[in-house]
Write a structure and sequence with these properties.
With 274 residues, this protein is of the alpha/beta class. It folds into two domains: 8-102, no CATH class; 107-258, Rossmann fold (3-Layer(aba) Sandwich). Helices cover 40% and strands 19% of the residues. It has ten helices and ten strands. The chain has helices at 8-22, 57-73, 82-85, 115-126, 159-167, 182-192, 206-218, 223-227, 242-258, 267-272; strands at residues 26-33, 41-45, 51-52, 77-81, 96-102, 107-111, 130-135, 152-155, 173-177, 199-202. The protein has a five-stranded antiparallel beta sheet with strand order 3-2-1-5-4. The chain has a five-stranded parallel beta sheet with strand order 8-7-6-9-10, sandwiched between helices. A hairpin with a 5-residue loop joins β2 and β3 (51-52). α4 packs across α9 (242-258), α5 (159-167) packs across α6 (182-192) and α6 (182-192) crosses α7 (206-218).
Length: 274
């Protein structure tokens, strides 16, 4: 709840802090060119009321409507002209509004610190993810093996408890299950589907992943959540080495997060040839 005498700036900063702490997403709209109120800001969360004002109720409402479209497009920033957003607002026709996406840094929880899990943690960290690497073999998650402090290392005495705690509320969290066997995979997946992560991937062949998923169904797991599991995990890039497999997994996660299709960007050239 806002403090009684909280300033507009303090209200906005607290709202931004709340968005980041709960792992949700919001659009921050800034009036960048206008007859007045240049620099004014409005924060529009994906859910919940907007915070801030441009000093014009009609403009505030028009910007809030466009914010939903902006967030759906998954762009990081975009500049809009008010005349394109709300042509009826003649007094603001020459004004522009900058939208910026606000969300916490992407997180990746990796179950299994073998060759693929280790490679995935290192690659994810290089690409801006905060990686958490778990394994029930303590010698696989020692700092000497992972000097990058952005990689959180957890020796799991109990897979279920460690996985749940690492995922937290699941917002903005991707999970890759890359353990050494069926039983460990199933134990981790059982914990994962009780949470609500943005992405879940399970490594293995079609046969191996089907065995795990079938066991989960027979045990009464939530079918809707099971259907969302990417199994086998990753894009088909012909990966062979652990590093290549890690790249295939991360590529699929990025495509899912950014709304990409995972195809070749140059395919249109071949398709358009006679």
């Amino acid at each position: 709840m806002p403090e009684p005498n909280e300033t507009p700036t303090a209200l906005l900063l607290n709202a931004i802090k709340h968005v980041l702490e709960e792992g949700s997403t919001a659009a921050l709209a800034t009036l960048t060119s206008a007859p007045r109120s240049v620099g004014a800001k409005i924060l529009i969360p994906e859910s919940g009321p907007a915070v801030g004002s441009f000093g014009d109720v009609a403009l505030d409402k028009a910007v809030a409507r466009r914010a939903s479209e902006f967030l759906s497009a998954r762009d990081e920033t975009r500049l809009f002209q008010v005349r394109d957003v709300a042509s009826e607002l003649a007094n603001w026709s020459e004004a522009s509004v900058l939208f910026e996406r606000l969300q916490p840094e992407p997180r990746l929880v990796i179950c299994g610190a073998g060759h693929v899990g280790a490679a995935l943690a290192r690659l994810a960290s290089l690409t801006g993810y905060k990686a958490t690497l778990l394994d029930d073999r303590a010698e696989f998650v020692v700092r000497d093996l992972f000097p990058d402090v952005r990689i959180e290392l957890i020796a799991a005495e109990n897979w279920n408890e460690a996985v749940r705690q690492a995922i937290g509320n699941g917002r903005g969290v991707s999970v890759a299950i890359v353990t050494r066997g069926h039983n460990e995979d199933e134990e981790c997946l059982r914990a994962v589907i009780t949470t609500d992560p943005a992405y879940v991937g399970l490594i293995g062949s079609k046969r191996r992943t089907n065995i795990v998923l079938d066991r989960m169904r027979e045990a009464g797991a939530d079918l809707e959540k099971l259907q969302k599991v990417h199994a086998p995990v990753g894009l088909d890039i012909g990966a062979v080495t652990p590093e290549e497999v890690a790249l295939a997994i991360l590529a699929e996660m990025v495509a899912e997060r950014r709304g990409g299709r995972g195809g070749s960007l140059s395919s249109w050239r071949r398709e358009s040839r006679p």
